[in-house]
Amino acid sequence: MLGRHRGKNQAAGAAQQDIELNNTQVEHSHQKSFLYNHEGHRVNHEGHRVNHNGHKVTKGIKPDGESGRKGIHPWHFLRICFRSSSKASMVVNVLWPFVPAAIAIHFARTDLHLWIFALNYIAMVPTANLVGFAGQELARKLPKVFGVLLETFLGGIVEIVLFMVLLHNNDNSLNNLIPVIQAAILGSILANLLLCLGFCFFVGGMNRDEQEFDEAISEVGTGLLLVAGFGLLIPSAFSRSLLKEVDENTPERPTIDQPQLDSKVLQISRVTSVILLVAFLLYVWFQMRTHHGIYDAVLEKDEERDHDREKDLKKSKLTLTECFLALIIALTCVSLHAVFLVEQIEHIVDDGHVSDSFMGLILVPLVEKLAEHLTAVDEAHDNQMNFALAHVLGATIQTALFNSSLVVIVGWGLGKAMSLDFEIFNVVLLILAIVVVGNFLRDKKSNYLEGALCILVYIIIAVAAWYYPNPPHAEGGSEPSEAGSTNATAEAGTELAERALKMLLN
């Protein structure tokens, strides 16, 4: 009888042991044994949750971002920051010697305007890259959707700093920088939509027939871009539509004069900026709260397709304190270079015969967006097209809805006439870019040919911007004899913009 009970107990014990072995899996990595608890989390033999490298996960930190260290370790900090997130970013860090050189020449030789501009322009590249890398390291420690949004926002900090410095230094009578800001807003959007997205498609498609991405990322992005395009177009369309009324204004037949028109356009721009800001907040709420589950699933699936995932997980990470330290250092340097750079724009435009359009559409966006571009292209190379699209479209939406609105509202508070009355040339470029990218995203697939075409379109825009003359209001006003030709050009541009919008809607 006792033997029978002993046999039953042994059988029950063996069955229980089998159940425990099935529920607890053992993994051997780096000569360490890790267990999985009932929630599927990796734990050590003491029951503490650990990440892939065996580091104990701090409460509130995601395993992928756990560094295994606390505080600041100077050698590890410098080594990790220099290696950065990709080979391209590491090559960019070679430019750090330009940072002290740019600061020194600003104070030592104030007469060398071209050298000051060039050195500070180059020095902004590694500092902006550090902002992007620190944001990426910080995003790893946070939930996926919130991390991507935060990383995109931090990448746009450089742009916001530049816009604020340009706005602060603006003087309508002596140094009118508002046309540069307006061109830079649209230039940033064009650089993201055509250049960055083009390189993502091209680099990602070099070793693959095609890449696929989820409609949750592309459709919401293109829809918001269309809204942003309408919002940015309306003040310009209003202004150009009433130019004929200004031309026909006479004492015998009073209609509307130029000061009245400028005042109305400024009011429309400010109201539009508030509305676009609300649209951006709705977009953030949509992604973070009500529909974050959809984006979490899409991004997690993208992580599984990452060819370098294991390699990235094994890389050393910055601590939370080191992330904030890197952001403080980078933002301080970026702010200094932005101030020094903006001070030289007037000399470069006047003495170097560089147009406001080329300065705003091409030169300023290239340096401010480089870090975001490197991150997105690296993700596309690793077959993470949803991550790449989230960064590209997210940065574009932030510029169109948030940054543009912010600079108008801040200008409102400073008493500066910052409006959304863009040159019709720039508006047409924006609408056509949305049309091109919208068509490429429609089938939820991409290849290197589409990427090459986007890049070529951007090069054409750069050539046109180089030869585009400064607008009359940027040069101190227009002569009455030029009013007729200005009105004719505006009407032609408005008609072209309307056709582009019809193409997009169809």
Describe this structure in words.
- It is a single chain.
- The chain is 72% helix and 3% strand.
- The chain has 19 helices and 5 strands.
- It has helices at 2-23, 74-83, 87-92, 98-108, 113-140, 144-155, 157-168, 178-205, 215-241, 243-247, 258-290, 292-304, 309-314, 320-351, 356-381, 385-414, 424-441, 448-467, 483-505, and strands at 26-29, 32-36, 42-43, 211-212, 445-446.
- The strands form 2 sheets. A 3-stranded antiparallel beta sheet has the order 1-2-3, with no helix packed on it. Strands 4-5 form a two-stranded antiparallel ribbon.
- Helix 7 (157-168) packs parallel to helix 16, helix 8 (178-205) runs parallel beside helix 17 and helix 15 (356-381) runs antiparallel to helix 18.
- The longest helix is centred in the middle third of the chain and has 33 residues, at 258-290.
- It starts with a helix and ends with a helix.
Oligomer: single chain
Shape: globular
Radius of gyration: 27 Å
What percentage of residues falls in helices of 4 or more residues? over 70%
Average predicted confidence as pLDDT: 75
**Contiguous helical run count:** 19
